[in-house]
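TICKET: design request
STATUS: open
ATTACHED STRUCTURE:
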């Protein structure tokens, strides 16, 4: 009767009838349940994180390709307006005794009007030296790959804006130096150079920047490489020295970096680290520029103009091409098309792709 009255007349505490029963409060969790939920969430995060990172890198790769596309179209617009691809740089007069007249404007400077950077281009006098001018440290977002996190401020690189996109100058800046020692099947002479290379005419043995007409690219515009990726730190430790090889180097640390200046191209006349090498303020000698920094370096990166040498290979040597995209680099061909190239590509084939007039069209 007591039970019936309790259940039927008013809400009584059932614990009074069954004191060993514990009722769970609404919405509560036990410690074990919480630990199980946390473990499930951690497992899901572990499964999803690689996918998220892959999606982010895929987005960065797409942005990188779009930037290369813009630069390639700028090159083609220059070709349409001037009837030639731009030279690698405007070096100026470097004969006789110092002081030299050294202008050193780069191909990136020359295509500014063709990539919707007319405002920046308007303040540049190509007849005056580039060193120390305000534009050499100007922001140029199209010049940087989003996968490269280093040296985003010119103050970190002696007040020089750097770029992740370099022009193909061919096998080396001294194009016939290795004719007798190159691997079988590799051709190297004055006629086989990159689109942004230099001829053997003029100052021996280096020559002057050449301007190349489309008709001179015998391989075809879609088969000759124009621009490729470079990191802001370079690749080192290729074995041996990463020359004539592919994919056996590792990215450098920022303390031992080798970068490319966006708006200044460095000539190779005279002895390295002596005049006419210049720092950003025009002082000479400029041993930090174009010089490979050794292990333990704590200064700014070594640096060259925005060009690369085929002899350095892909992801092997600091003088070649390299990228933070795992296992490949993005390139733009002379017809403006953008493609990935694997670091496992045979170096001899890579050399032929980078040559503008070797008469061997390679499909890669």
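STATUS: resolved
RESOLUTION: sequence designed for all positions
ATTACHED SEQUENCE:
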């Amino acid at each position: 009767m007591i039970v019936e009255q309790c259940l039927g007349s008013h809400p009584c505490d059932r614990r009074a009838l069954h004191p060993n029963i514990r009722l769970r409060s609404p919405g509560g969790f036990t410690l074990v349940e919480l630990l199980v939920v946390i473990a499930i969430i951690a497992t899901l995060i572990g499964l999803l994180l690689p996918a998220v990172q892959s999606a982010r890198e895929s987005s960065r790769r797409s942005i990188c390709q779009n930037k290369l596309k813009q630069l390639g179209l700028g090159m083609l617009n220059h070709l349409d307006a001037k009837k030639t691809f731009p030279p690698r740089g405007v070096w100026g007069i470097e004969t006789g005794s110092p002081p030299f007249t050294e202008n050193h404007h780069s191909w990136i400077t020359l295509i500014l009007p063709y990539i919707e950077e007319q405002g920046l281009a308007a303040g540049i006098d190509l007849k005056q030296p580039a060193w120390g001018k305000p534009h050499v440290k100007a922001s140029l977002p199209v010049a940087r790959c989003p996968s490269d996190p280093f040296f985003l401020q010119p103050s970190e690189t002696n007040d020089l804006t750097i770029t992740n996109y370099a022009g193909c100058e061919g096998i080396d800046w001294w194009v016939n130096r290795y004719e007798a020692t190159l691997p079988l099947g590799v051709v190297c002479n004055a006629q086989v150079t990159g689109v942004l290379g230099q001829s053997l005419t003029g100052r021996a043995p280096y020559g002057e920047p050449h301007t190349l007409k489309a008709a001179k690219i015998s391989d075809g515009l879609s088969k000759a490489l124009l621009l490729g990726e470079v990191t802001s730190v370079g690749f080192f430790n290729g074995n041996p020295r990463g020359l004539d090889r592919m994919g056996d180097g590792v990215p450098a640390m920022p303390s031992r970096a080798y970068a490319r200046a966006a708006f200044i191209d460095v000539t190779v006349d005279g002895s390295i680290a002596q005049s006419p090498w210049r720092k950003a303020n025009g002082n000479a000698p400029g041993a930090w520029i174009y010089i490979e920094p050794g292990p333990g370096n704590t200064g700014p990166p070594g640096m060259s103009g925005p060009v690369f040498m085929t002899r350095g290979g892909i992801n092997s040597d600091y003088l070649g091409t390299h990228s933070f995209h795992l296992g490949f680099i993005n390139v733009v061909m002379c017809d403006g098309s953008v493609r990935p190239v694997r670091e496992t590509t045979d170096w001899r084939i890579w050399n032929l792709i980078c040559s503008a007039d070797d008469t061997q069209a390679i499909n890669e």
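CLOSING REMARK: The helical segments are 2-9, 31-82, 107-110, 118-122, 347-354. The chain has one domain: 49-354.
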